[in-house]
Amino acid sequence: METEYLLPRFRELPQLGLYSDQVVTLVNEVLSPLLPADSHSKKEAQPFTASMLNNYVKLRILTAPVKKQYSREQVATAIVLCILKQVYSISEIAALISFALDSAELPKAYNRFCALFEQILICTREKRDYAEVVAQDDTIYLLKTVLISCSAKFYVKARLRKNTSRAVRN
Asked: pLDDT tens, 85-98?
């Protein structure tokens, strides 16, 4: 895990529609510090692919593109999906997104997700207690626990990569 990891906020995502290959590239760039490619062929090991994007649309987790272009809302949802899919099933992710959107509009829910995830990543990296991350209500508490599990998964993957690379050098 990188020392300082920041997710783009909603206003920082492209306002103009993106084609599927652009969405895939953007999401992979955003997630590359957390999920670096594990193989020699970066194409093979990308955390997000065009096939995944199409499947999420077919499963109605992502709304269909308009004139083959994806909106800022869809890009934000794709970033959240890729983070959550490291730990949760597609049906669980769909339920979690629905739950989060019951309490806030997508831009606010996405920005809250980003801020909380960054706080939790810092707690994980610095081995601090997650109780420091305040959860004002049930929705935030659920999001906090979901993101703790995701952060733990990223931490474990990073440690295993580090140990594996150390073993290869020796």
From this structure: 999 999 999 999 99
Q: What is the pLDDT of residues 9-26, one digit of tens each?
A: 999 999 999 999 999 999
Question: 50-85 burial string, b = 16+ CB within 10 Å, else e?
Answer: eebbeebbeeebbeebeeeebbbbbbbbbbbbbbbb
Helices (H), the chain: 20-31, 50-58, 72-84, 90-103, 106-125, 138-169
User: What per-residue confidence (pLDDT) applies to 163?
Assistant: 77
For the chain, how long is the longest CA-to-CA vector?
A: 53
- Asked if residues 17 and 66 have their Cβ atoms less than 8 Å apart, the reply is yes
**38: which 2 tokens?**
């594990």
DSSP state letter for 26: H
Specify the range with the lowest mean pLDDT, choosing from 25-29, 76-80, 130-134: 130-134
Contact 26, 75 (CB under 8 A): yes
Alpha carbons within 13 angstroms on the beta-carbon side of residue 67 total 3
What span, in angstroms and rounded, lies between the C-alpha atoms of 128 and 105? Answer: 31
* Token pair in block for residue 74: 């869809």
Q: Which residue type occupies 32?
A: S
CB 105 within 8 A of CB 44: no
